[in-house]
Structures are given as C-alpha cells and as structure tokens.
Write a structure and sequence with these properties.
The chain is an all-beta fold. The chain has a single domain, classed as Neuraminidase.
Length: about 425
C-alpha cells in the first residue's frame, strides 16, 4: 500500500474551477470528463501478423516481482503492488499468457513513462520505461502478442496551458521486453479511443487537438505493414469518450465532450460499421454522463452502467443496454449502489463484474455482477480496499485484475483479483 497522501482535499463534485471534479480532481474540467480507466484485452478474432519497426534503445528493466496472489477463501485475493501508486489515466493491455502491461499516471496525477508488468505466475515487476512520459495515451493489443501505444500529451505542471497532444506511436514486444518506434499518426491527439478490430487493425478515434478542440477524425493502424491510414469521420467530434468492440465486429462509441463546448457532455452514440467503413448514428443515452463503464456483452449487446451526471454532482445508478440489431438503447436494471469512477470486467461465463467507484459518501469497496441472460444485478464479494479511478482487466482464466486507483486517503499501488 502506498503511503503517499492523496492530493484531493475533499470529495468534490460541483466546485470552483470544474463542473466535473470527482474523486481526486484533475486541474481542469477537460481532464475528467470521461471514464477513468482503460479496459483492453486481446481480441480472439485477431489473426497473427508480422510486425515491423525500428527497435527502441530503451532496454528491458527487470525488477524484483512482488509476491504472487495470496490464496484466500473466496472473494478478492491480494495481487501484490505496482512499482508506484497510480490512479486515473492508466493504460492497461492484456498480453499473451495472461500477463498485463500497465502505464500512465502516478499518485499526483502526472503522466509518467514507468511501466509495470503483471504475471499471474509471479506477480508484478518493472517493465521497460516509455521513451517519453505522457498522459492521455491509448493502447490496444496487436496480433502476434505485441501492443500499440499512441498519442497522449507530454506531462506538465500547472493548471493551465498544457502542451499539445502527441502524434508519436510505438509498439511493445513482450518477448524482448522492448518498445519499438512506429510511424507517427497523421493527426496528433490525446484522450482518444483505441479499439482492436477483428482483421487485426486498430481503430483510433476522436481525441482533442492542441487547442483542446474535440476531433472527429479517425485512423487505422495496420500492424502487418506498420502503417497508418485515414479512417472515416465521426458524426461528432469528441474526446474522453468510451468505445467497445461488439461481437458483430462494429465499434460502439459513446459520450465524450461536445465539439462546440468542451465542458458539455454528449449523450449521442455512433457505430463504426466495418462492412461500409462508415460511422452511423447509434441513438442517444438520454442523460449525458461521464465516468461510466461501457462493456461489450457476449450476446452482441453493450452495457453502460453508472457514472456522473452532466450537472457534475448527481451520481447515477441507472444502466442502459445497446442492441445493435435494433440500433437502439433501452433502460437496463439499476445498480444496487449509485457509483462513478468505477471499473468493469467480463468473466468467462459472460457476466460483468463492476467494482468499486465512488458515491457521495466516498470510495466504494462494493461490487456487483450483471447477468445478461437474466438482465439482472446481484451482489458479490467486496474489494479488500475501497477504490475509485482504478484499472480493471479481464484475465483468461476467469479472474478480473484491479489495480491502483484512489483509496479512502491515499493513491494506491495495490492490486487484487
């Protein structure tokens, strides 16, 4: 557990300087509009493809792994500690063999290039550092076991005038433990989404530019040729949105910040249709919200749960279900507890595990399970440590790994599964 004192002085919702501060607020509203964790896993539909690129000079750094998870009777097990406390803008990618790569923000919310690797057989160890510190990057698994990391912005100190976003990209090779430079994106962007497609490509969508204006552009990364190509234009420019790959191969994008007003949340959704390579309208979620979870279900639908209302103070327990066959949203069953800044992972039986988050009283340890066959929620074992703004990754053998986040008083380095 970290001994670093959390930077948040109070539990803020609607306060001076930001309408959307919530659980360890960032300096500016545009930093905290969306969900605060990335949940990425390798797509089973991806077929292996060769990789190309120039090897980074950054060497693999071996560290002393923390202890493997303790075996406890049911519930959550200790998963060991990351090398540093992390919360908020973490990036996580599932590697081959059930390992997980994690990078992103540190305990004070600053962008860092430090990397942690989780191995189910050996716990956490230090991975190769990124060539440059960054925050707001996106990552996705590639065929053959590698991972792509792209965009973001350099770290900065202060409450205003951040540096512009980055166009740089790189791939990680777990076999050699090295980062390899990839070609730059044609458009620099931060706080975009990265979604692995069934054909092995990665779709990068949205984000913001150097003037903090949401982008409507998208790009494809082809790992077999290590090249970028221009993708179709979104119907709305947006950043800090959520995106998931649906069972049918489409990519559902939801929410984010409005193109005309970065402080206004979008309630619209859109769907990338791989058959036509176009973005299509996908209805509206009704109440605009931030810091929700969006999860693809095994039956082809998507589940949106909880979040923070557009007023910056209302924490939601409502859920929505998107049906691509009807291209519409319907009301889902309410969560037992209203929560925001929580995380979600999918179990091998198709149920969705929602963990932690925050309500008006503070951080939550409670967890809930959504069963898509019955469209119902049920309670399950609570986390050992209340946390929000944490990372959740579904592991191949049915576990969900949660790591970092904000605890009741401190930023966290701990993990559990």
């Amino acid at each position: 557990m970290s001994t670093h004192r959390s930077a948040d002085r109070s539990f803020e919702t609607k306060s001076s300087g930001s309408r959307y501060r919530h659980m360890r607020p960032a300096p500016r509203a545009w930093l905290v509009l969306g969900t605060c964790c990335a949940v990425l896993s390798a797509s089973a539909a991806c077929s292996p493809a060769p990789q190309a690129g120039r090897s980074s000079s950054s060497p693999a750094v071996s560290g002393s792994p923390s202890a493997p998870p303790a075996t406890l009777p049911g519930g959550w097990n200790a998963g060991g500690d990351l090398s540093t406390t992390r919360w908020g803008q973490m990036v996580g990618v599932l590697l081959q063999g059930g390992r997980v790569l994690v990078t992103g923000t540190s305990s004070d919310g600053r962008g860092v290039g430090n990397v942690d690797i989780y191995d189910p057989a050996g716990g956490w160890s230090v991975g190769p550092k990124l060539p440059n510190d960054r925050i707001g990057a996106v990552a996705a698994p590639l065929p053959g076991g590698r991972s792509l990391l792209a965009g973001g912005r350099p770290d900065f100190q202060g409450d205003c005038c951040p540096p512009g976003p980055l166009a740089t990209a790189m791939t990680y090779n777990p076999s050699t433990g090295t980062w390899t430079k990839a070609p730059n994106m044609s458009v620099a962007r931060a706080y975009a989404t990265a979604t692995p497609l069934p054909d092995g490509r990665v779709l990068i969508a949205g984000g913001y530019d150097a003037q903090i204006r949401p982008l409507a552009s998208s790009q494809f990364f082809n790992p077999s040729s290590s090249t970028w190509t221009t993708g179709p234009t979104l119907t709305h420019g947006r950043f800090r949105q959520s995106a998931v790959l649906l069972k049918g191969g489409g990519v559902l994008v939801v929410g984010g910040a409005d193109q005309e007003n970065p402080d206004r949340l979008l309630s619209s959704a859109e769907l990338f249709d791989p058959a036509t390579a176009r973005w299509l309208g996908a209805g509206t979620i009704g109440t605009p919200r931030a810091q929700f979870t969006l999860t693809a279900l095994a039956d082809g639908r998507a589940l949106l749960a909880g979040g923070l209302g557009a007023d910056g103070s209302t924490i939601l327990r409502s859920t929505l279900l998107y049906d691509p066959a009807k291209n519409q949203w319907s009301q889902g069953p309410d969560l037992a507890s209203a929560r925001t800044s929580h995380a979600a992972g999918v179990l091998t039986d198709g149920r969705v595990l929602v963990s932690g988050g925050a309500d008006q009283a503070g951080r939550l340890a409670s967890c809930e399970l959504f069963d898509p066959t019955t469209n119902s929620w049920s309670a399950t074992g609570a986390l050992t440590t209340p946390r929000s703004n944490h990372l959740a990754i579904s592991l191949p053998k049915g576990h969900v790994l949660v790591a970092g986040g904000s605890g009741s008083r401190d930023a966290l380095a701990s993990s559990e599964l």
